[in-house]
Write a structure and sequence with these properties.
CATH class: Alpha Beta
CATH topology: HIT family, subunit A
CATH superfamily: HIT-like
Number of domains: 1
Strand order of the largest sheet: 1-2-3-5-4
Order of helices and strands: HEEEHEEH
Bound molecules: zinc ion
Structural class: alpha+beta
Strand content: 15-25%
Number of strands: 5
């Protein structure tokens, strides 16, 4: 069975441990879009042990915290869909009121043409690593 998240890292690797990894997604409209991806192929959150669920969500919240610190977004969107790639992963998407789709989800109807604000990826990565120093 082919799985995009088993076959590849899924973006620029920002951090990882035994359970999961944090990657920066290649998306020109959303240059600070991160994903937290479970390292092994698992379909649903409830397939994980309780301790793993907690640890994974802790990583998601640490990425959210770091993104807020560095980017000061108007909103953070957290999403877990997996309809196309049924391998546990969480989207952490900093949103701005003037971004391409706001207030729609980034997968929804386009609201405006914009040039995304530049992101200091190194600074974002440093903040993520610092937020995850206890993991
Ligand atoms: Zn997989």
């Amino acid at each position: 069975m082919a799985c995009d998240l088993c076959d590849a890292i899924g973006g620029k690797l920002l951090w990882q441990n035994e359970l999961c990894r944090v990657v920066l997604v290649e998306d020109t409209d959303y240059p600070s879009f991160c994903r937290v991806i479970l390292n092994r192929h698992t379909r649903e959150m409830t397939d994980l042990a309780h301790s793993e669920r907690s640890q994974l969500m802790g990583v998601v919240f640490a990425v959210e915290f770091a993104a807020r610190q560095v980017l000061n977004p108007d909103k953070i969107n957290l999403a877990s869909l997996g309809n196309m790639t049924p391998h546990v992963h969480w989207h952490v998407i900093p949103r701005f009121a003037d971004d391409r789709h706001f207030p729609n989800p980034i997968w929804g109807e386009v609201k405006r043409a914009t040039t995304p604000r530049p992101v200091d990826i190194e600074r974002l990565q440093q903040a993520i690593v610092a937020a995850l120093s206890d993991f």
